[in-house]
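cron nightly-structures :: item 1 of 1
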Amino acid sequence: MEIRLSDETLTGLRRLCNRSLVNEDYFYRLLKEFLKTGQSSAEKPEKDKSEIDEYKSDVLKTAYASLAVLLIEAARHDLDNFKLKTVLEGYNLDTSRISLIVDAYQSGKSNIQTSLSKIGTNLPHIIDVRWRMDLRIESDYLGERAFQPYFIIELVTVTSSNNKKIVKFSCTPEGLQELVCSLKAAARHVTKIITPSK
């Protein structure tokens, strides 16, 4: 899968690879700063202020933002080094800087992907269901008894960080039937969305 970069990002990458706009020192500092941001907070060195905050030039800020977009998108699409290098060469960027960008991507890819996996609204996945039926006995003041069945359902879920959680609830047979109908309707709706229309 090939990544598509916006015109603004391409402009920033061209500036990043232009030696007259971004000298070697700043180029290495930009790469180093981005790789630091991909680390977990436990691995980050203590520092009061980011080096990027010190940059006065809009060119450097644009170059840094474009580098971040490129490396994040590459990690999101799980590009290998060869594919990333091919993408960058397709934009006619400086080959020596392409190699350095690809090397930086390789060293920071797993940290970037780990950070990306912690972002988002991934709902827990149901991995197991346990249920049992009980009988509720209710008696009124006249001594008459009414037997009412109900179900106790446990859903075992797992989050994106592999934490297991048990969701437990009870319902009447009518409530269970309504739940099953709703789940079937949701499954049909998802199948309809996924299946291409003819």
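cron nightly-structures :: done
The first helix runs from residue 7 to 16.
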